[in-house]
Amino acid sequence: MAVLAFAESLTGSIKKAGLEAVAYGHRVAQALGTECIALTIGTPEGASTLGQYGANKVVNVDAAKDFDSQTYAAVLANAAKQLGCDVVVFSHSTSGKSLAGRVAVRLDAGLVSAAISAPSTDGGFQVKKSVFSGKGFATYNITTANKVLTVAGNTFRPEVVGSDVAVENITVEAPAGRVRVKETSTVSGTVPLPEAELVVSAGRGMKGPENWGIIEEMAGILGATTACSRPVADIHWRPHHEHVGQTGVAIRPTLYIAIGISGAIQHLAGVNQSKVIVVINKDPEAPFFKAADYGVVGDLFDVVPRLNEALKKFKASNN
Amino acid sequence: MKLLVCVSQTPDTTTKIKFANGDTEFDASGVQFIMNPYDEWYALVRALELKEQLKAGSVTLFHVGPKANEAMIRKGLAIGADNAVRVDAEANSSFFVAKQIAAYAKQEGMDAVFFGKETIDYNGSEVPAIVAELLDMPFISYATKMEVTGTVATLDRDIEGGKEVVEVDFPFVLSCAKGMAEQRIPNMRGIMMAKRKPIQVVPAVEAADAAVVVKYDYPAEKTGVKLIDPENMDELVNLLHNEAKVI
Ligand SMILES: Cc1cc2nc3c(=O)[nH]c(=O)nc-3n(C[C@H](O)[C@H](O)[C@H](O)COP(=O)(O)OP(=O)(O)OC[C@H]3O[C@@H](n4cnc5c(N)ncnc54)[C@H](O)[C@@H]3O)c2cc1C
Ligand SMILES: Nc1ncnc2c1ncn2[C@@H]1O[C@H](COP(=O)(O)O)[C@@H](O)[C@H]1O
Fold first, then answer.
1. pTM score, two decimals?
2. Which end of chain B has a smaller Cβ tally under 10 Å, C or N?
């Protein structure tokens, strides 16, 4: 039995979420001592490179380009049966999340979403995930023969472990979609927040939207994505898609720089899974410092320009 | 139109979390519970708005959980739902919950099943897709806007780094995210009326748990923040590069 990883390609090419599903599929296959087969839908660009990230085999299904969870789930479940796969892996992305449950029903499989570990097979089939806004972890045991997993973003980084493989086209049964996609728009240029490795975020301490130049400058130097606290989005200083936290986007970057943000629990809920947190705040009592790895107590209007200069110097000497 | 809104109960984000029984169980003692925010603010309110627009139909709340959770259900009735159904059982797994919802929605011939985008405790985002498959219905996840004309709904949904506009015919399943509606605070009249609204209690349909928690643990404590002199930002850059290795 093999592992099937869905390499999603919403915009015609395979992005990070798709690569991460394959990187995780590879790890799961290793843990189970089997192969990882990557599946693409609609002949995306770069399918053969999935071999580099751990796919032993890549198969493509030419189904409708428009995303429809009913069609896609049928493709995945039927392909899993056809290819003899008992574990199906998705990224914990919007499409992965809308498919995992459906595929689990079709395969009578137990489902665990947003996994942060490869399965451990002593004592069943156990995977771990973060729960209660990062205040705990839960280990699940899946008891069914088939399993479906989604992997949390920025957890299993795509690494080159092999080389390109030929893409094989296969045909599987699937019903026509009933959702009609009228329009798709993506913000181009910047890395979307859920995928970003480096995030520069600012809050009400900024005093007004006109002061965001120094934040954007820092993001530019680092190649980071910008984020903000909720009140800042609510009062329209920043666009809503930048809002992180319990009610906004939950992220897991390697570096989160929080500037002029107090660190309320609802904010932390969305960012406390970051690998390294830097906090810049003039109030030494700000709760964020308790969750931080590095802290600077000072006025952001002095500290941030100074940090930007230091970063520029560093980038110049490292290029 | 018959609209079903599925609501769950979750610990408030500010609550301290404890585990019991050798860290194999969640310890609910002393925990402050709330209605899952996405269910309350977005799914329920948008369903009510739709009923108001159509000037017909009904909004039924659906909850899988013990009797103690009825206070939460009453709040949903006070916000404006017409009636509620409670499956008298512990919600131990997404499959179990989804089977209950699907069985009821099918029996009652629901025109749309509304969900929050995820619960804030286990953040699974699992139940809505399972229900959609069990009902063999289209599923629009992470909807941020919905317009209904006749039997067609047009929705905006979040996708990675962007959005999609889709059209779908009723019946369908949707999960609701920020933007869908504005939170409604129950008023005195709503609270009084809620007392007389029925909560029907039904037994659970049989469903196996395919994935269950066997162990909890706590995250490692942060070892303490390293404070850097605000005058010396070269030092911070140095630490991020050489010690943390993140830039
Ligand atoms: C149900 C619920 C859900 C919520 N969800 C979210 C969510 O998803 N995300 C979220 O962010 N919030 C959320 N909140 C709000 C949250 O509780 C906080 O109110 C919010 O995060 C505070 O934003 P802030 O830190 O930007 O502003 P403030 O709390 O006003 O903090 C500003 C900080 O800037 C510092 N500062 C001011 N001037 C300077 C300066 N010149 N230099 C350096 N530092 C300075 C101050 O010391 C202070 O710490 C939610 C709240 C509730 C009740
Ligand atoms: N016990 C429950 N009773 C009713 N609906 C639920 C229950 N648990 C979850 N839901 C619904 O399913 C959605 C997604 O939950 P989850 O899959 O747990 O993230 C929630 O936002 C609710 O709308």
1. 0.94
2. N
